Amino acid sequence: MAATSSVPGQLTAPAEDFGSGEAILYRQAQRESAARTYARSLPVVPVRARGMTVEGADGRRYLDCLSGAGTLALGHNHPAVLEAIRRVLDSGAPLHVLDLATPVKDEFTTALFETLPPALADHGRIQFCGPAGTDAVEAAIKLARIATGRAGLLAFSGAYHGMTAAALAATGDTEARAVVESDSRVTRLPYPYDYRCPFGTGGERGAELSARLTASLLDDPKGGVQHPAAMLVEPVQGEGGVIPAPNDWLRRMREITAARGIPLIADEVQTGVGRTGTFWAVERSGIVPDVMVLSKAIGGSLPLAVIVYREELDAWHPGAHAGTFRGNQLAMAAGTATLRFVARHALHERAEAVGSRMLCRLRGLAAHHSCIGDVRGHGLMIGVELVDADAAPDDYGALPAAPRLAARVQQEALRRGLIIELGGRHASVVRLLPPLTITDEQAEAVLDRLADAIEAAGRPESGSRSDSRGATATGVDPVRSGGVRTAGAP
């Protein structure tokens, strides 16, 4: 018999099941907003986690290739991170200090600047913005507008920069952007997308046309684009479908902006701290942006966001950008431990090596599955674009996106003990964001389970076997190979 909830007009699951995973999921569905996302497609109630392994309330274990949307560079509860947090807690240090100087903050800033491109670190300034990456994007845009005295912004198709007003205005998703469409100061430019090239050419030619269009619009007095305050770009588009920017194209964007006095803002919220095979994704192309937007992994699993920028841009007055929770001491301690562990163990190099092997095997898988349209990525930021193999290709050879197939693959993967994320234009790109500490055995297990999920999702009867939670017991232990051991752990 259902019991009455403390929330008026709502019912809970049966009282005897109050602490069960099913009951928790039920109450979440009753109480949380319709905006919840991951909880809909991944009905897991995590109760324990270590490294790449997550255990649900029902006792099932999963290999986590979501990693907090890229936040967990070292995986869940890494010993170095836990020790750093305990040290601060045991020291009696204050946990909430606004923007006051503390030894913990000084250590974090030092560790961060040690990893930055020298040309930026030697003449850089840092602003602690608040808890989330979108706060840092807002700060970067505001900084550029104040420093230049201009209002316009150059952004790109497929971009994702957050959920606050200016960040949303720079985002490529038309539906998500509708709430801030009154901000007409954003000029949208084509981002090089080899598989679905907006110019129909792909490759170097498509990237060159994108660069030419950018320069032409900026230099044409009747092009309709006022001189902007900044250009905002992701070195690898994450939510847009794991689309790496070609190195030559990024260099051209740096040349175009530098020649016209336009600050270049690199959004490294998801790509930073070794994920793409270099410590920062901009290093792959050799460019040095004027502003870097950093969050996710820099907090070592806790909320932290900053921008680092050239000192010449430091034009705002005291209090021009603030935030109550910009002094998160635990996040700074966890972030310092993460930054130093990744650097000391060269985990960015390991991400490049493991990621290259995973890409190679996935491309081999694509040769046997016509529903895989493209495989791409850098390091441990990998995308597999699923397509409708039975449909006719467009004029340039690309097949239509297959969002329903991708959703089935996600559920079949969950049934096999693998947590994956979807993204891209029509949520048809399987995104793999495993921690940098993934072992070789775990990498093979991820690929085995994903291959099985794609095979199962392609069968006509696929999807009819899932229970209401989207996952069923399979009898397969997803951590049998690799266990919870963390690569490079002390």
Question: Could you give a quick summary of the protein structure above?
Answer:
This protein is an alpha/beta fold and 490 residues long. The protein has helices at residues 21-31, 38-41, 67-70, 79-91, 103-115, 118-121, 133-148, 165-169, 174-177, 203-219, 247-259, 329-344, 347-366, 403-415, 440-457; strands spanning 46-50, 53-56, 61-64, 124-130, 153-156, 186-189, 230-233, 236-237, 243-244, 264-267, 291-294, 305-310, 372-378, 381-386, 418-419, 421-423, 429-432. It has 15 helices and 17 strands.
Question: How confident overall, as mean pLDDT?
Answer: 87
CATH topology of the largest domain: Aspartate Aminotransferase, domain 2
**In total, how many beta strands?**
17
Oligomer: single chain
How far the N terminus sits from the C terminus, by CA atoms, comes to: 51 Å
CA radius of gyration is: 23 Å
Number of H/I helices: 15
Largest sheet: 7 strands, mixed
State which percent range the strand residues make up: 5-15%
State the shape: globular
Any idea what the CATH architecture of the largest domain is? Answer: 3-Layer(aba) Sandwich
* Strand arrangement in the largest pleated sheet: 4-12-11-10-7-5-6
CATH class of the largest domain: Alpha Beta
Which residues form runs of ≥5 with pLDDT under 50? 1-12, 177-182, 462-490
What is the fourth-level CATH superfamily of the largest domain? Type I PLP-dependent aspartate aminotransferase-like (Major domain)
Structural class: alpha/beta
Number of domains: 3
Helix proportion: 25-40%
